[in-house]
């Protein structure tokens, strides 16, 4: 069934609810307000938690087959609305339409892929007298706290993992990007019983209200490391189960034997997709000194040729960054680069608009101690660094508080594997980066997170482990 994409509601107990007060996001390409969305209160949250608690009784007892069928019906409805969702995503997030279309396609792949996985039930001991089984049971009411960079994909991933394993879920979008997530929940009410999937939009108070709520049993959080710490502290009070997917500062190590004509265009995309607002993408590029100059010059040339503008226009690659806060942070980092006299190679004249456009910038061999190397820019600002010694570059690559992704690029797969085996990150890649799939667990080392999402491992994160002891005598 087609949706109305002009009015936005909370979804509570399979009803579309307006709130007394509303708020709105901003179209980052124009600076103009997007439509009004609900501003949820503590009472709205209480209602949603009560409905989720009621729904859990039956939903947790439905079979995996029934739950899979509901998830597939939901995916079909998302697919039927994919063009409108992608256009809405561009309008709220700023990413170009083709990247928004890919995000919707990935969400479909995740929904269908996650719900085709099977949770293990393991017989740990089997004797004449005794059987011991380990199995997984749903936790209860889950909350999915979603960031603004991949609002649709990450909401679908969290929501599907929760409900497929028998939980109920309340989705809380970022205040910057509430639109697609509210529409996803509207589609979900056509497929799930009341209270199983709900969504609440709100401002900065809503996240802490959720993590404090005694009726919620599990939080799946994706966002910055700083907020992740606050979420963990809040969850500690009621010992909520918690998955944290946090920031990253991924290194890529480029060896001297790569084919530049093949590798540089790939790396350019993996550094700058979504205006570099992706947790797991190349944020520190270590290039062997033998090819450094040629690599840098080719990279600059490719980046300069990528079109910048409103993501709703054709062929745009660089949209705006998503919000004013991110724009100000990026501007501050650019000021730091200039004031420290670093060699910043800037491309593009930013569009003449009130949008949040940041000039894509490549910083030529800055010191390892500079902010652009130490921090996660989350904007199209990339340090490219020279290396010559393998042991040294590994130390530099691992010298970060983060550990989300890391990659090695070489034609010599044995050498690449030897280097990759020494990288400290939850996802390690050879001759690629930023790959993910519904069957593959995804998570971070160090301050990049706790637990995993996706894969059987990710599904288990939505469950209690239960050990069943059966004395047969
Ligand atoms: P953020 O931490 O500001 O916000 C994330 C979500 O948390 C939003 O919904 C926000 O409203 C909510 N929130 C804010 N304060 C809260 C609190 N005290 N309690 C509960 N919820 C609260 O992050 P962001 O700026 O939206 O996203 C960018 C960050 O997310 C980057 O650091 C990026 O690397 C990271 N990220 C990580 C992954 C991953 O899977 N590891 C994926 C995408 C983004």
UniProtKB/TrEMBL annotation:
Residues 23-461 form the Aldehyde dehydrogenase domain. It catalyses: an aldehyde + NAD(+) + H2O = a carboxylate + NADH + 2 H(+). Its EC number is 1.2.1.3. InterPro entries: Ald_DH/histidinol_DH, Ald_DH_C, Ald_DH_CS_GLU, Ald_DH_N, Aldehyde_DH_dom, LUC3-like. It is an enzyme of class 1 (oxidoreductase). The keyword Transmembrane does not apply. The keyword DNA-binding does not apply. The active site is at 245. One of its GO terms (molecular function) is aldehyde dehydrogenase (NAD+) activity. Keywords: Oxidoreductase. Belongs to the aldehyde dehydrogenase family. This is aldehyde dehydrogenase (NAD(+)).
């Amino acid at each position: 069934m087609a949706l109305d994409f002009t009015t936005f509601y909370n979804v509570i107990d399979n009803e579309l609810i307006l709130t007394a007060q509303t708020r709105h996001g901003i179209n980052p390409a124009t600076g103009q307000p997007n439509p009004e969305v609900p501003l949820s209160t503590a009472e709205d949250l209480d209602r949603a938690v009560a409905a989720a608690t009621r729904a859990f009784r039956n939903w947790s007892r439905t079979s995996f087959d029934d739950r899979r069928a509901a998830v597939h019906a939901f995916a079909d409805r998302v697919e039927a609305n994919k063009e409108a969702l992608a256009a809405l995503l561009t309008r709220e997030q700023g990413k170009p339409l083709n990247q928004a279309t890919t995000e919707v396609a990935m969400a479909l792949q995740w929904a269908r892929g996650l719900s085709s996985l099977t949770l293990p039930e393991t017989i740990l001991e089997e004797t004449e007298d005794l059987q011991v089984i380990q199995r997984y049971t749903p936790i209860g009411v889950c909350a999915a706290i979603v960031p603004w960079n991949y609002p649709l994909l990450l909401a679908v991933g969290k929501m599907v993992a929760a409900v497929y394993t028998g939980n109920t879920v309340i989705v809380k979008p970022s205040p910057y990007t509430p639109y697609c997530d509210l529409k996803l929940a509207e589609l979900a009410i056509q497929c799930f019983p009341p209270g199983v999937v709900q969504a609440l939009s709100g401002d900065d108070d809503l996240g802490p209200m959720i993590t404090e709520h005694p009726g919620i049993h599990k939080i799946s959080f994706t966002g910055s490391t700083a907020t992740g710490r606050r979420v963990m502290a809040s969850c500690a009070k009621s010992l909520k189960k918690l998955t944290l997917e946090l920031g990253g500062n991924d290194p890529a190590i480029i060896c001297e034997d790569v084919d530049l004509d093949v590798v540089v265009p790939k790396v350019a995309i993996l550094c700058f997709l979504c205006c570099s607002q992706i947790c797991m993408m190349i944020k520190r590029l270590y290039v062997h000194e033998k090819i450094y100059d040629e690599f840098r010059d080719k990279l600059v040339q490719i980046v300069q040729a990528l079109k910048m503008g409103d993501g709703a226009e054709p062929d745009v690659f660089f949209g705006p960054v998503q919000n004013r806060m991110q724009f100000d942070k990026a501007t501050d980092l650019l000021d730091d680069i200039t004031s420290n006299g670093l060699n910043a190679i800037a491309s593009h004249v930013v569009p003449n608009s009130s949008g949040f456009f940041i000039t894509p910038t490549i910083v030529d061999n800055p010191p390892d101690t500079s902010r652009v190397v130490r921090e996660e820019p989350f904007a199209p600002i990339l340090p490219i660094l020279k290396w010559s010694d393998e042991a040294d570059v590994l130390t530099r690559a691992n010298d970060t508080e983060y550990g989300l992704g890391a990659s090695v690029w070489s034609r010599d797969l044995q050498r690449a594997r030897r280097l990759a085996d020494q990288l400290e990150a939850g996802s390690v890649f050879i001759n690629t980066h930023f790959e993910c799939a519904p069957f593959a667990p995804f998570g971070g080392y160090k301050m990049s997170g706790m637990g995993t999402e996706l894969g059987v491992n990710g599904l288990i994160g939505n469950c209690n482990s239960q050990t069943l002891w059966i004395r047969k005598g």
